[in-house]
Amino acid sequence: MKNDPVRTAIFPVAGLGTRFLPATKATPKELLPVIDTPLIQYAIDEARAAGIERMVFVSHPSKASIERHVRHDADLSRMLRSKGKNGVARTLEAACLNEGEHEVVFVMQDEPLGLGHAVNCAAPHALPGAVAVILPDDLILGGRGCLAEMVDAYEHGKAGHLVAAMEVAPDAVSSYGILAPRSIEGPMIFASGMVEKPAIDAAPSRQAVVGRYVLDGSIFADLDALTPGAGGEYQLTDAIAAGIGRVGLAGYAFSGKRFDCGSKTGMLAAILHVARSNPDYADVLEEFCSLQAATAPAAA
C-alpha cells in the first residue's frame, strides 16, 4: 500500500514562550536565533526539503513579526541592494517563502487552548490527505531532514499516523508521550498506543514522541470530537490515540540530532552544536575551552 503524498505542513506558533521571558516579551520564541538562523527558519527549510506545497502557520495576533519573517519583504531587499548589500539581500530572499513555489497561509489562535486546538485551527486550509505538523522549538539537525525522512516513510508505509520518536533516558520518560511498541521494522516502531508522561515504572518503553508528526486526514474529525482536558486544553495526543484502531500508529526513529529549544539548556546545546560545526567559530570555542581548563580545580 502507498499512502497519498503529504502536501500540507502546519506550524503551531501561537505560544507565548514564557520560559524565555524577558527575551520573548517582544520577540516570538520562534524567531530566537541559533547563532544567526531563527528556529522558524530551520522548520521552514525542513518542510521545503520534504516537498511540502502549502504551509499553514497558526499564530497569534501579537506575533506579527513571524509573518514578516516568512514572507518576502521587497522594500527591505531594495534598500539592501541600494546600499550594495547584494549578498545579504540574496540570503534574505532565499530564506523567505516564495509564494510562486509554496502556498502560505496564516491563521490566528486567539486563546491558548492546546496543541490539538492549534492544529485544528488549520483544518479549513489543509489540502486533501495527510498533514505534517512541525513544532519549531524542537530543532532536529542532520541527515536529509527529519520531515523528509518521515514523509518518505509515510508514503511507503503501513500506518496512518506517524510520529517522530527517540529513545530518552529513564529520568526523562515522565516528560514525554511514550509509545507502546508492538513491532519494529527498521526505523518504524509500530505501536498499539501512547502513554502521556508516565512514571518510569509504568512506561511501556523509552520511545518518546517529539515534535514532528505526519497524520492521516481523519485527525481533524477526531480533533472535532475531543473534549477539553486539564486547563481547558485540547491535546493532539488524545486525537491521535482516538484514531489508532482505524488508521494505525508508528514512531519513526529519525537520523538527525534533536534539541529541545523550548528550554534554555536545549537552546544553548543547539547553539554550541552549530558553532562547533562551523570553522568560523573555532577560535571562540577554543579560547573558551582553554579558559575552562585553566580555571578548573586540580584533581586531588
Automatic annotation (TrEMBL):
Pfam family of the protein (one): NTP_transferase
Enzyme class name: transferase
Family matches, as InterPro entries: GalU_uridylyltTrfase_bac/arc (IPR005771), NTP_transferase_dom (IPR005835), Nucleotide-diphossugar_trans (IPR029044)
CDD domains: UGPase_prokaryotic
Domain Nucleotidyl transferase: 14-272
One annotated GO molecular function: UTP:glucose-1-phosphate uridylyltransferase activity
Annotated keywords: Nucleotidyltransferase, Transferase
Gene Ontology BP terms: UDP-alpha-D-glucose metabolic process
EC number(s) per entry: 2.7.7.9
Catalytic reaction(s) noted: alpha-D-glucose 1-phosphate + UTP + H(+) = UDP-alpha-D-glucose + diphosphate
PANTHER family the UniProt entry points to: UTP--GLUCOSE-1-PHOSPHATE URIDYLYLTRANSFERASE
Assigned protein family: Belongs to the UDPGP type 2 family.
Protein name in the entry: UTP--glucose-1-phosphate uridylyltransferase
Organism: Palleronia salina
